[in-house]
């Protein structure tokens, strides 16, 4: 922290706040006294404590709950009290340990935006642990993706989603298709007996190709590249779009690929399971990753 290794410092000297997965609010203390706890241990005077508590309650929108106890609060309200308590001593670093995992989907969606806006407003460096890929993509400025204790890839949310470097990264961040391929030339690969063009340079003889469902073009023009016929095996309605499983007829073997269909396309064309469809695996959308 501030270019200093704080790992070996006593906990009370590390200058960071933490929000636990279970919130860990003191059940015998009111909202006010929960938030004030860290300030009291630092021997702040009463006036300073009251001013800071009121300021934080207003910041997290809980001024009307100042005298309530944790059992009287909803999960989302408890989470905001825990966040205010962590922020009370104005730490140089904030640690969030899956703070939204115990909440329902609607509350999570609301609070992740609230936490992000609060963090930007206060300007405190924040490290958040999460297993929710949507949380990571929407809240982070920078993601460090861990796999068995080792950094798999790091970068901006867009980088990790658009340019995964490994199969694990491609599968963990979003939904994707992974295809084993053999090099034909610098920009051509063979997948299940079929030749596909790829914009990326192929350096290895054996590679893995990934393509996102939304990057597979449905009913492409006849002059487009990497066109294949397929049969829709499954259709899953996801509101704004459908996710389909298409059995693609490669030259030597049929392979299932996840594709994305607009709801408008499905409804206007009365698309059902077992309908035939043509797709294009766009050369620009085929990404080469490490096995």
Automatic annotation (TrEMBL):
InterPro entries (alphabetical): ABC_SmlMolc_Importer, ABC_transporter-like_ATP-bd, ABC_transporter-like_CS, Mo/tungstate-bd_C_term_dom, NA-bd_OB-fold, P-loop_NTPase, Transp-assoc_OB_typ2
A Gene Ontology term for the protein's cellular component: ATP-binding cassette (ABC) transporter complex
One MF annotation (Gene Ontology) recorded for this entry: transmembrane transporter activity
Entry annotated with the keyword Repressor: no
Claim: Chloroplast is one of the keywords in the record: no
Domain ABC transporter: 1-173
A Pfam family it matches: TOBE_2
Keywords, sorted A to Z: Transport
Full protein name: ABC transporter domain-containing protein
Naturally occurring in which organism (per UniProt): marine metagenome
Native organism taxonomy: unclassified sequences, metagenomes, ecological metagenomes
């Amino acid at each position: 922290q501030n270019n200093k290794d704080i790992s070996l410092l006593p906990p009370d000297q590390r200058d960071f706040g933490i929000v636990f997965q279970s919130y860990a609010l003191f059940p015998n203390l009111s909202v006010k006294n929960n938030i004030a706890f860290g300030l009291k241990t630092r021997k702040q005077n009463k006036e300073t404590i009251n001013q800071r508590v009121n300021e934080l309650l207003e910041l997290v929108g809980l001024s009307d709950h100042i005298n309530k106890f944790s059992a009287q609060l909803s999960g989302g309200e408890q989470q905001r009290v825990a966040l205010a308590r962590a922020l009370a001593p104005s730490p140089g670093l904030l640690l969030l340990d899956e703070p939204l995992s115990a909440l329902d989907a609607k509350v999570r969606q609301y609070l992740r935006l609230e936490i992000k806006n609060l963090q930007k407003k206060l300007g405190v460096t924040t490290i958040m642990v999460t297993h929710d890929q949507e949380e990571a993509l929407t809240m982070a400025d920078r993601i460090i993706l861990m796999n068995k204790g080792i950094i798999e890839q790091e970068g901006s949310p867009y980088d990790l989603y658009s340019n995964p470097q490994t199969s694990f990264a491609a599968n963990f961040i979003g939904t994707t298709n992974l295809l084993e391929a053999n090099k034909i030339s610098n920009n051509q690969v063979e997948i299940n007996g079929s030749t596909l063009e790829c914009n990326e340079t192929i350096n290895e003889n054996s590679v893995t190709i990934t393509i996102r469902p939304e990057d597979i073009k449905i009913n492409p023009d006849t002059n487009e590249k990497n066109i294949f016929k397929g049969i829709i095996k499954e259709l899953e309605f996801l509101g704004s779009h459908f996710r389909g499983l298409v059995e693609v007829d490669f030259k030597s073997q049929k392979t299932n690929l996840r594709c994305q269909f607009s709801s408008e396309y499905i409804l206007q064309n009365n698309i059902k399971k077992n309908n035939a469809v043509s797709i294009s695996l766009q050369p620009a959308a085929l990404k080469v990753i490490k096995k």
